[in-house]
Amino acid sequence: MKSIRSIRIAAIASVALLGGLSAAALRQDAASPLPKPATSGGMSLTEALAKRRSCTAYSNKPLTSDQIGQLCWAAQGITEPTRGFRTAPSAMALYSIRVYVVDSAGVHEYLPKEHALKTLRADDLVAGLQALVAKPAGLGGATTAMILGMNLAPLAERAGPRAEKFAAMEAGHIAENVLLQATALGLGSIPVGGFDEAKVHDLLKLPEGIRPVYILPLGTPKG
Ligand SMILES: Cc1cc2nc3c(=O)[nH]c(=O)nc-3n(C[C@H](O)[C@H](O)[C@H](O)COP(=O)(O)O)c2cc1C
C-alpha cells in the first residue's frame, strides 16, 4: 500500500516531466489523487454502531492511502455528482466544513470533487498538534489526525445568526461518519473538541477564516 508521501512524489515527478515545472513550484499546488473509495460491502452499519468506542492509545503504524482515502470519502466524499451532494448532510448544501489531514508528510486538504489531497504544508506537525490537544487522551500516539474546519462566512450570509449552530451540527455529522468508517476499517478514533482553536490554526497555518472545531486522531488501536 502506498503512503501519501510516495503518491505525492510520483504525482509531482510525472507532472514535472510533462510540464517542465519545478517540483518546488508544484509542491504548493499539486493535489495527490486518493485511491477509489469502496461504496459497498464491509462491516454492517449496525455492527459499526455496536462496536464504535473512543480510542485513546494507538500503535505507531501509519495509515495506508486506501484507509486515508476511505476516511476522507466518509467525511465529505461526493455521492451525487450531478448536484455535488456528499456523504454527510449540509445546511443549505453549502458544505461549510473543510477536511484536513495531518500526518508526518504534512498538512493536507481533502478536495471532494477530485477525491484528492492537496498538501498545504510539507512539515511534520503531529507532535506539535499532540501538545495542543487536551489531556488525558491527547492524540494517544496516533500518527494521523483529521481536522474539521468551519468555513462560516458563506453560511453566515444565508443563515445569519444560525450559521454557527448549523456548521457545528454539520461537523458532528461528518465526525460520526468518520468514527463509524474507522470502526468498520478496524481503526480507532475519538472526537476531540478540547483544544485552543487559535493555537491549532496557527500551528497548522490553516487558511484565514477557517476555524478548527474538531480533531479526530486516527490509527490502529494499541493492544
Ligand atoms: C463534542 C465532543 C467533544 C469531545 N472532546 C473530547 C476531548 O476534548 N478530549 C477527549 O479525550 N475526549 C473528547 N470527547 C470524547 C468523549 O470523551 C467520549 O465520546 C465519551 O467519553 C464517550 O465515550 P465513547 O465515545 O467511547 O462512547 C468528546 C466528545 C464529544 C461528543
Describe the overall structure.
- 39% of the residues lie in helices and 21% in strands.
- The protein has helices at residues 4-19, 23-29, 45-51, 65-76, 126-132, 152-159, 163-184, 197-204, and strands at 31-33, 78-80, 85-86, 97-103, 106-111, 116-121, 144-151, 188-189, 210-219.
- The chain is built from eight helices and nine strands.
- Helix 4 (65-76) packs antiparallel against helix 7 (163-184).
- The strands form two sheets. A seven-stranded antiparallel beta sheet has the order 1-6-5-4-7-9-8, sandwiched between helices. Strands 2-3 form a two-stranded antiparallel ribbon.
- It is α+β, with helices and mostly antiparallel strands and 223 residues long.
- It has one domain (33-219): NADH Oxidase (3-Layer(aba) Sandwich), CATH 3.40.109.
- Flavin mononucleotide binds at residues 53-54, 134, 137, 190-194.
Identify the notable features of this structure and list them briefly.
8 helices; NADH Oxidase; alpha+beta; two-stranded antiparallel sheet; seven-stranded antiparallel β-sheet; single chain; binds flavin mononucleotide; 223 residues
